[in-house]
Amino acid sequence: MVEERRIVVTGAARGIGKAIAEAYAKDKCIVFALDIDELALINLLQEANKQKWSLFTHVVDIRDSDDIAEFFSNIQENRGHVDVLINNAGIGKWTSPDKLTVKEWDDVLHTNLRGAFLCARAAARLMPEGGRIIQMASTRATMSEPHSESYAASKAGLLGLTHALAASYADRRITVNAISPGWIETTAYDQLRDIDHQQHWSRRVGTTSDIVRACFFLTDPANDFITGEQITIDGGMTRKMIYAD
Predict the structure, then answer these.
(1) Of these residues, 151, 169, 189, 243, which one is catalytic?
(2) For the segment 124-175, what is each residue's pLDDT rounded down to a tens digit?
(3) Are 12 and 44 in contact (CB under 8 A)?
(4) Does residue 95 contact residue 107 with C-beta atoms inside 8 Å?
(5) Is 24 a catalytic residue?
(6) d(Cα 59, Cα 221) in Å, to the nearest integer?
C-alpha cells in the first residue's frame, strides 16, 4: 500500500490556500491546514469532517517563530515527516510609502517572506529525499501599481528565496519552486465583467483551480527536474504590451 503523502498548506482558511488544501485532501493526502483565522479554520474542518477527508486544522501565526517551531515539532512527534509544503500565507497593505508605518511594513514582510523562510526550513528538516516546497509569490514581484511597496518587496523576496533554497537543498533532492498568480478571483467570479475577462490573452480571469493544477504538477514525485523556478499563471497579463489609444 502506498503511504499517504503529508501536505502542509499555510494560509489555508480561505481563497487559494483553501482550494489547495481541499484539493489535496480530495486526492487522499493527509493535509495540515494552517491559518491565523480560527473561525475560518473551524468552517474548513467542518467541511473536511463531512467529506471524511484526512484534513487537520492548526491555528498558527507564521509571524511568530515559536508558533512555527511548535507546529513542526508536533508534526515530527506525531507524524514523523512532511512530504510537501505550500507556503501560501500572505497579506497586503496598500498604503502610500509616505504613510506606511514601520510596523505595517514589518507585518507584511514577516508574514509573506520571513514566515515562508521559517516554514520552509522547518519543513525541510522533516522531509525525506524528494520533498517538495512551493512558494506562492505574485506577478507583483515584477510589476507594480502605486502604494504596493511592502507587498511587492515581499513577493520579490520570495522569488529570490526560492532559488536560494533550491540550491541549498539540492543535495537532499528537495525541489523548491514558486508560483506567481495574477488575477485569481476567489469569491465572486460570476460578477466579473466581460472587460475583466477580455483584457487577458486567455480571455478569462483566473480561478483557484488554475493554481491547484500547477501545485499538483510541481509536487508530483516524478517532477524532480524542475527546481529553483517560478511559474507565472496570469492569463498572459505580464507579457501583454499595452498602448494608450
Answers:
(1) 151
(2) 999 999 999 999 999 999 999 999 999 999 999 999 999 999 999 999 999 9
(3) yes
(4) no
(5) no
(6) 29
